[in-house]
Amino acid sequence: MNKIYRLNLINSMTGYKPANLIGTQSKEKNTNLAIISSVVHLGSNPPLLGFILRPAVVPRHTYSNIKETGFFTINHVHANFVDNAHYTSAKFDEQVSEFDSCEFSREYLDDFPAPFVKESKLKIGLNFLEEYEIGANKTIFVIGEIQSIYMPKEILKENGDVNLNAIHDVCISGLNNYHEVNQIGEFKYARPGKKPENLLKR
Amino acid sequence: MNKIYRLNLINSMTGYKPANLIGTQSKEKNTNLAIISSVVHLGSNPPLLGFILRPAVVPRHTYSNIKETGFFTINHVHANFVDNAHYTSAKFDEQVSEFDSCEFSREYLDDFPAPFVKESKLKIGLNFLEEYEIGANKTIFVIGEIQSIYMPKEILKENGDVNLNAIHDVCISGLNNYHEVNQIGEFKYARPGKKPENLLKR
Predict the structure, then answer these.
(1) Mean pLDDT over residues A65-92, rounded?
(2) pLDDT tens digit at each of 202 positions of chain B
(3) Which residue intervals of A33-131 are DSSP H helices?
(4) Which residues does residue A171 pair with via DSSP β-bridges, in sequence order?
(5) What is the pLDDT of residue B54?
(6) Residue B2, SS3?
(7) Which residue of A28, A121, A178, B33 could cross-link B98, Cys pair, CB 3.0 to 4.6 Å?
(8) How far is CA B177 from the centre of its chain?
């Protein structure tokens, strides 16, 4: 199997992946922005998210900035800027900020010490909590705790659910494919004895 | 913040999540099936996937079966059975197999020692490789290596990419929302100096 073929195939195996931009800066305030498709929910109380950093693939600056400052942001990717978001995956020189070269605007909110992406409608500020180096391939699983969430209040439902369709969040398959998303099912918490009813089909 | 509200809100923060059914069996061949939205790509060579098990939420049988036999399957969820897939999240008694109560068919392929889901068009057999207990909340990050992949050959593109749209794979938001997916962007590997062109818009 050639390398690109294998990369595309194995990257397709998870199914659809979330599309997020991770924003960081160094102590000298050099900013970095990287698209990451491996953000995963770890728990709600405390509110924890994790993501995988593959040092050979993702610019190391994201990792070194997180370790240097202890903070990073996660910013959802919307359909209207998938091209610029994908462009952050290019291996830019260290001196270049992807905010500039990929046409994103830095946004600093409430003195949080990492840059948010102004163009993103759902932005999360996190502090670094833990990291695990995976024995099998030396990737790093980085874990952060949510400190702040910014989003339009119209997309927050009464039950705490967020309407990601309304802000045109996208998902990724493989390495290079971006997709728009439309809800087809909404269920209640499932309990034994009764197959859950699709509330959208009532 | 009440508990359900917090669960819904924090589970929405990653963006869209993949929808997969994890199939396992005990040494006595008692089978188990659980929907998991935390499958993540860890690397392509060796081909590694991971997922998060929250012992308080997911039936422990998935974990104990994996540890007992060393094998599990990952099966993609399609739009036509999101209701049955969601139903596997109910806390069934230990003696009950979700294959039966949620109307899925066990499928054994090439003597692989864990059950696949017959209704799923993309099925992956994995062997257990490593686990990490996350200090902050005692969840477990389980890592497996891909041993086998089954899918219709029509969805495998020349470059190794897989057309997940064609088999109606879905994604999840929050805990209870299921979505269909349509491709809007396809890019080449990004390189500095030239913003990637959306090949679907040519």
Answers:
(1) 96
(2) 799 999 999 999 999 999 999 999 999 999 999 999 999 999 999 999 999 998 655 557 899 999 999 999 999 999 999 999 999 999 898 889 999 999 999 999 999 999 999 999 999 999 999 999 999 999 999 999 999 999 999 999 999 999 999 999 999 999 999 999 999 999 998 999 999 999 998 6
(3) 60-69, 82-87, 98-101
(4) A18, A179
(5) 80
(6) coil
(7) B33
(8) 15
Q: Is pLDDT at A56 greater than 90 in this prediction? A: no
B187 sits in which H/E element: none
Closest chain A residue to the Cα of B50, Cα to Cα = A14
When CB atoms are compared, the residue of B77, B141, B195 closest to A87 is: B195
All residues of chain A having their beta carbon less than 8 Å from the beta carbon of residue B83 are 185, 187, 195-198
CA-nearest residue of chain A to B93?
A192
User: Domain map of chain B by residue range?
Assistant: 3-201
Cα separation of the two ends of chain A: 48
Radius of gyration (C-alpha) of chain A in whole angstroms? 18
From 2.60.40.10, 2.30.110.10, 3.90.850.10, 3.20.20.370, which CATH number describes the A14-201 domain? 2.30.110.10
Q: Whose CA is closest to A128, among A67, A47, A75, A74? A: A67
* pTM of the predicted protein model: 0.96
The Cα–Cα gap between B112 and B173 comes to 32
Residue type, B83: D
On whether the CB atoms of residues B83 and A187 are closer than 8 A, the answer is yes
Q: Which residue from B38, B186, B192 is facing A92, i.e. has the nearest CB?
A: B192
Instruction: Tell if the CB–CB gap between A141 and B136 is shorter than 8 Å.
Output: no
Mind telling me how many Å the CA of B18 is from chain A's nearest CA? 5
Answer whether CATH 2.30.110.10 is correct for domain B3-201: yes
Question: Is the separation of the CB atoms in B104 and B118 below 8 Å?
Answer: yes
Closest CB from A5, A90, A190 relative to B190: A90
| ipTM of the complex as predicted | 0.96
Taking CB atoms and an 8 Å cutoff, what residues of chain A touch B185? 82-83, 86, 170, 177-179
CB B141 within 8 A of CB A132: yes
List of residues 6+ apart from A100 with CB closer than 8 A: none
Task: Give how far B118 is from chain A: nearest CA, Å.
Answer: 17
Asked if B10 lies within 8 A of A41 by C-beta distance, the reply is: yes
Helix (H, G, I), strand (E, B) or coil at A134: coil
